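Ligand: adenosine-5'-triphosphate. Inputs:
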Amino acid sequence: MSSAYQVNQPSNNATPKQESITGVVERLTYHSEESGYTVARLQRSRVSELTTITGSFAGIQPGQTLQLNGFWREHPQYGLQFQVTNYKETKPATITGIEKYLGSGLIKGVGPVTAKRIVAHFGIETLDIIENQIDRLHEVNGIARKRITMIKKAWETQKAIKEVMVFLQSHGVSTIYAVKIYKNYGDKSIGIVTTNPYQLATDIYGIGFLTADKIARNLGVPTDSEFRYRAGITHIINDASEDGHCYLPQPELIEEVSKCLKTDDHQPMEEGIATIIKNMSLADELIRESSPDKTLLCYNPAFFNTENNLALLIAQRLRSPINPDMERVRTWLTRFTESRKVELSPQQQQAVEMAAYSRVLIVTGGPGTGKTFSVRTIVGLWKAMGKSIALAAPTGRAAQRLTEMTGLEAKTVHRLLEFDPKSMGFKRDMKNPLPQKAIIIDEASMLDLFLAYSLIKAISEDSQILVVGDDDQLPSVGPGKVLADLMNSGKVPVVRLTQIFRQAQTSAIIRSAHQINLGQYPNIEPISETPQSDCLWHGGGQQPEHGVQAISELITDFIPKLGFNPVADVQVLSPMTRGLVGTRNLNNVLQQLINPPNPQKLEVTRGGTVFRVGDRVIQLTNDYNREVFNGDVGFITKIDTEEQEVIVQYQERDVTYDYADLNELGLAWSVTIHKSQGSEYPVVIMPIYTQHYMLLSRNLIYTGLTRAKKLAIIVGSKKAIAMAVRSVNQKERYTQLRERLAQI
Ligand SMILES: Nc1ncnc2c1ncn2[C@@H]1O[C@H](COP(=O)(O)OP(=O)(O)OP(=O)(O)O)[C@@H](O)[C@H]1O
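Predicted complex:
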């Protein structure tokens, strides 16, 4: 089990004196899974002080015994460090080393306590015994047969992973991907990687074309091979869908592919790419459709079919009319409003009446325009008409809000459609439609192409659909802009609520949101000890570092003084992840402020992120097995170092993550505005700086602001806010749903 890894050479001009040191990794101060760059503390024998080592490492773990070659250097801030150029892992030679190694989280089923017990029994022989006579573990008190089997399996997996890892390391893949590759392909890993490295980009979450290409090139796949071109074309089309596009025009596709495939010794030719696109289209690997101006639009086939079918299904619904007795509907409505002593605005009245006779109806409007009020009335009407009703929203938070607002149970769309993790599909579909005859979908701006199609497929033809949303919000994270396309098609009936109700007008958050939407600089009150408004502005200096400072002070001082709880009530939203006022840095700063290290609180570090008991965390991908979805937010309530598990409490239930799956989680003290869609928080703090200029747009700041229910504080320069308000050039998404509907 000794393996050698090559580490990047330092870029110093003077040739430093190479030395060799050996020691046991005590802890990792910093480790990037992406680049492998690591700062760690090493315990050397006969040296009492810990030594700081830096360099690129693959799968470094506390407890590993390493033989390191490198050189000493004096870091201006951190003092003497050993910069590693290459290293070799050797078997731990000391009892403490073995104990640490075994208990470091390497093997599921062995945590620090069990490791101590095993090592206490077998001493220096421990690893040999695990390797060759694992059954002898039963000699150790408290290790039952079942656990031995588990440890045996984990040890073997670990060994196999190591083998795969060494292979992949030598082809430039980082440990985290090596583990994923192994999890996905098992013993076949090396075979698959060698035969078609581009397969990885298709099969493994987190491995993109670029990583696969790097591996392929290391393996000697020629840069002009058709293999590589096909993978590049698929990659660019898929990548475009990450930006929300459903297709790419061929000229843009060719340009992007050309950039992507270019290497120092290879310049792809446009005609070459065009030929392969054509071949792929003949083989149905992609679909090309001619637009009215004769541009070829290149689709991933799944996107093409879904867009088409969605349009067809909606058109089909629109063709079958409902003819209720409108006199009775109006009488009902009069009685309903009179008995509740309310009056509907003419637009709301229209929405309710149209809900009586429309198969598909969209109700839209900004905050405080009475969408929810209308929905409640429509629910009343539909109930009176004897319809069974289902309510849903794309996210858990939005569904919960809908429940609170309507008093009826609302589900996430996934739950409503009964997602089945085994088949990775929905149990509710055309053959097995939802039993309800009236379906209400809220926060519809978050519906992407695929979810919208799954939904409509599961709604029977004799049902009605009410779609509620605000198309000025950011579009869905997934591809498409379904709500906007439906609204702009001219085929689906739309009621746009524009009047802001008196109750809502008292809120500066709502007034400011509408101003932003109109392109006006919002009326936000400069922050003071005694704020008069619920929408405040903190100058926060011109520079992001002042912003970080300002946010810290708001969290520790200002917010608590106003009676809000920084842990439960406040959400810091940022336009981006990178930069000082990006979510990544803010999370570190806020974690330190709100949930600092504490001997009573266990923590685990993965991918450079410290997860600590008490941390607020966000799920970053859809995990159908655990039934937690992208954007779900919870709190870490427990870390089990023995089982190597982290327990996160979500609104409805606890969810357990293996350490290995922690890459699904991120800290959520700060989240991006994109991720906050569909959620609401009592207090929102939103840094807006010119450094974010690429991302600043009207609907971004509008979406962020409207997440706040009681207090919003924008931190940043007026210039940046003005930039955001002016910018409407949110990159258009390439979709044809509107055109398809309009044609029908
Ligand atoms: N017809 C009405 N008569 C009296 N009050 C109304 C009426 N319609 C809406 N309201 C009130 O106006 C406020 C905003 O309405 P509502 O919550 O329905 O808006 P919304 O569009 O759903 O806003 P948001 O998107 O922010 O949730 C609420 O306090 C609501 O009770």
